[in-house]
Design brief:
7 helices, Troponin_I, acetylation, actin binding, Troponin I, cardiac muscle, mainly alpha
Length: 175
Amino acid sequence: MGDEEKRNRAITARRQHLKSVMLQIAATELEKEEGRREAEKQNYLSEHCPPLHLPGSMSEVQELCRQLHAKIDAAEEEKYDMEVKLEDMNQKLFDLRGKFKRPPLRRVRMSADAMLKALLGSKHKVCMDLRANLKQVKKEDTEKERDLRDVGDWRKNIEEKSGMEGRKKMFETES
C-alpha cells in the first residue's frame, strides 16, 4: 500500500500544480483583456469627444454655457417634433385599422355532451341528452289562441278598427 499512497500523492500534487498554472495563465489573460478594453475606450474617446477647453474668464464660461443651452434647446425641439410625428403616425395607423372590416368569427357547433367532455375532461361521464328528458305535452287548441293566429298582420287589424266605422264594427262583433 505504501507504493500506491505515493502514487496517489503524486497524482494529487500534479493536479494541484496544473490547477495553479491554469489559474496563473487565466489571470494574465484577464489582465491583457482589461488593458485592451482600456485602450479601446481611450481610442474611442479621443476620436469622438474633442478635448475640453475651459476658458479662463467668467464671460467666456458664460458664453460656453449659452452655447450648450442652445444645443440642448435644439435637441429638445427635435425630440418634441419626433414625438409629435410618431403620435400622428400612430393615429393614422389606428384610423386605417378601423376602416377595414374584420371577418366575423365562425360559430362552432358542439353538442352538450361534447361541451361537458371538453370542460370536465374524460373523468366525468355525464349524459346530457336533453331531448330524451323532455316530457310530451298535448297542447289544447283554445279559442283565444285560434283568434290570435287568425288575426295575422296587426297593421291590417289596426286599419280596420280606425275611424268611426271601425269602432262601429267593433261594437257589432262584441254583441
